[in-house]
Amino acid sequence: MFDDLLVGLFFAIMLGAFIGVQREMKLQKNNYLDFAGFRTFTFISLLGYIIGYLSFEILKDPNLMIFSTIGFIILVSVSYFTLSNKYKSYVSETSQIVAILTFLIGVLLSLGKDYYYLAVVLTVVVASFLVLGNQLHAFAKRISIKEVYATMKFALISAIILPILPNQNFGPLDFESLRVFLLQHFTEETLMQFTIFNPYQIWFLVVVISAITYIGYILIKIIGTNKGLLLTGILGGIVSSTALTSSFSIDSKRLNNLSTPLGIGIVIACSIMFFRVILEVMIVNPSLVVDVLFVSLMGITGIIISFYLLSKNKNSKSHHMKMESPFTLKPALTFVSLFIVIIFFTQLLTTIFGSSGLYFIALFSGFLDVDAITLTLSKMALENTISNFTAASAIFIASISNTIFKGGIAYYLGTKQLSKLVISSFFIILFVGLLSLFLI
Predict the structure, then answer these.
(1) Angstrom distance (rounded) from CA 271 to CA 298
(2) How many CA atoms lie within 13 A of 52 on its CB side?
(3) What global pTM score does this model have?
(4) Please, are residues 393 and 358 in contact by the beta-carbon 8 Å criterion?
(5) pLDDT tens digits, the chain, 440 residues: what are they?
């Protein structure tokens, strides 16, 4: 219990200081008076944690936390009105609102370890909005009614449609007319292995693709083309490089002059995918890491290519162009339709070859999702079901097939300029991977 208290105190101090340092930097940079800086925000978070801990762990009564929160809000409000009356130029209430949020983050930490992650995420979000304050104000001035409509459409497909969709798998046997026909040619046991359609997961993929497009658009308008696409590429590589490839390829036809930076963003995201594979192997089966290190060479090659292309493109004037609405649904649905077809053929090959066709399964599973096959093979090697060599080889095959598949997406959905850049970069990455496989 005492150890948990110390850990909570540590997080409260660190998160409060993380927010406080930004406010202190702004205060020092602009040389103006504010009611709180680095130390005060640290103390505010610490105060929230201590009050929350006393309420929930010691007294077992939330009233102390409730009345303390109300009192703190009153104190902050009084400080704002006092400063604004004394200094007529003092018009910003941002620090007071952030102080209340910092206090509540401290209270959130007092609820236990299950809430630490949420507290960290909230802190990062608050700090990000503070750091990007000027850029966000500039973006708000440039926003158009078309972009407002795009935001409403994105909210519709993500916040309204997604939650009501059933999160369960559907196969041929779930459709009566198709069931009667298929049972005349296949056994029911065979057909039960096919679960190719999950409405929630499929629509979630549409949301992810649309979200990447939307976030990339916002970042480009806030921090410029190259930096915006670089950051979006990194985030996309962490979340889903396949979804980002689809999103950026679709965007290249709407924003033709941005084909080159969009292509660079794809190469960055797909390069990060290789490092994600290494991390997944490290988590599940550390003994397999040495056998798959050659995968990281492909990632390093991709990063080098990306920075080379960025250096060549840094003087591009494409960021001065007029950009269109960030919302596109039809191309995302086209990609999802292709995704369903790939799922079907992957399950078909798995049914035909079984575990004996492991390399075939890795080849076609890689088209869909390199993460799932990587985790599965790592676990099989850990349990000695297959050798490390077999697992590493199959992971390599899945990584290659996933890269080739994304190259196909770029070719099919993107402009000629984007597909040429992406495919040539992927060719070099795959060549390095194959060469390392024979040399290591």
Answers:
(1) 7
(2) 22
(3) 0.53
(4) no
(5) 666 788 888 889 999 888 888 777 766 666 665 666 778 888 999 999 999 999 988 888 888 889 999 998 898 888 878 777 766 655 567 778 888 999 999 999 999 888 888 888 888 888 877 776 666 666 666 666 666 666 677 677 777 777 788 887 776 665 666 666 666 666 666 666 566 667 887 777 677 666 766 666 666 666 655 666 677 777 767 667 877 888 788 888 877 778 888 888 899 888 988 888 888 788 778 888 888 887 888 989 999 998 888 887 765 544 444 444 555 666 566 656 666 665 666 566 656 665 556 777 778 777 766 777 787 778 778 877 678 888 888 888 888 988 999 999 899 888 888 999 999 999 999 898 888 777 65
Q: Are 93 and 76 in contact (CB under 8 A)?
A: no
| Domain spans of the chain, in order of start | 2-131, 145-164+196-439
Rounded Cα distance, 39 and 79, in Å: 17
Give which of 206, 261, 274, 201 is closest to 232, Cα–Cα.
261
**What DSSP state is assigned to residue 184?**
T
Residue with tokens 């060479």: 297
DSSP 197: B
Question: Do residues 268 and 237 lie in contact, with contact meaning Cβ atoms separated by under 8 Å?
Answer: yes
- 3-class SS shares of the chain: helix, strand, coil, % to 5: 85, 0, 15
